[in-house]
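Dear colleague,

Thank you for sharing your sequence with our group. We've completed the structure prediction you requested, and as agreed, I am returning the results in plain text so they can be pasted directly into your records. Please verify that the sequence below matches your submission; if there's any discrepancy, let me know and we will rerun it promptly.
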Amino acid sequence: MQTIAIVGLGNIGTKYAMTRHNIGFLSLYAITQMLNNPYILHNSLNYQNTKTLLGDLESLVDKKKGIMQWQNQKSMQSFQAKISLKDFVSPLEYFPFFLTQLKCLNPHKKPLDSLELQKIFREKLGSLSNEYEILCIAPTTFMNRSGIALQSIEKKCNIAQMIVIYDDLDTRFGNLSFRYKGGSGGHNGLKSIHEYVKRDYLRVKLGIGNNIILHDMLDSLVAHNTRVSIESFRTLFYETYLEKLCMAKIFKTKSLFKVMESKIFMDKNLDSNDFNIGCQQMSSMDSNPCHVECNKTSNKNFEKDISNTTQYNKILESQPFGRVQGVEVQDNGNLESTQSTDSINSVTTTQNKDSKTSTPNTNLTQKIDSIKQEDYEAIMNLFSSYQKSGDKEVANYVLSPFNTHEKTLLAPLLAYNGLVVMATLFEWAYRNHNTQTSTDSTQTQTFMPLDPFSVLLK
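Please find the predicted structure tokens below.
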């Protein structure tokens, strides 16, 4: 049996559980929830699962529930969970727009609908051998000694591949990038791994650096100097970001902020129909017998008066592709909300009686039609100036909790990251299977190029 190790870096202890430095642990928690609770998959790339997908990984240890069960392996100084490769990648079936990125499913690039892709995926998944198992690892040695735990695990397991998920201060929050080789980049966890583990591994970097659009300082820096409603601007950012996670076609030719700009200034070249594709593909899950119907509410525009951060939590009800539902965002009880300034402007949005016939972007463009070109450029300049942690002391920043605005995007980001890891391992295992059945059995397979999956908010 060959082992594929998926390592999430973090610090044990309740006080560190929901901090930025623990995003590796948070990723493993989200993956576990996606595997153990398949009924949440239908909406795992929107705001509805904030409470379900975020939590303390230690709370899952020794709980005998689900197909992915965590145990405290004291001899190897880590929390561990084992699962077969086939079970691990099975959630991909519910996300046809992820399957379209796997060349092994459609090497000749034929026009296939969602049901055809799902059928091919199931057939190829069934053809894989049972020689691979996934071992998820959360070192309990604390971040700076992560390599010690991995060294002891490597001696006892036949590790074929290793993936390490960690936080990156030089990457702004919301970004996700992949590298197979490289240095530590100043990350103490990676330094320890390089010292004790002499092998290459796939690095999954989740940004925790400053994202000015999601930072509280934007309210005081911009709101009183421009005519921009920061709440509306952020809502547009959330909508566009989720569309990018769902791989809307428009992002093949436009960056995230170019799409935002097109929406703000109502660019005639922006085809709103592109944003319906991922939603239509996700709706095909309804015919799957494994899918459990989620509670649904009727589509409607939201009408709220926002004057402080507490009220602001309730406006983030938009789903991917511009649809707005009356679903209240829920924060995990373990997450401590950060206090923001009182400079957030109040904004009231009115309900559109003709919402059923309007385009997906109508609601937001009505709210942001007061944004002027110079105001938008001022915000983008501020964004460029505060990409990292700003003037905060680094040690305090990385150990701080995510702020209110960041928490709304954390769950879909972690869900997306989990799906990318699943897709990567499925494609790698399938190519390895084909290599072993061919005459050239000595060929070593590497991971596929991951550029199509990278969320780079340029």
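Summary note from our side: The chain has a mean pLDDT of 74.

Kind regards,
the structure core
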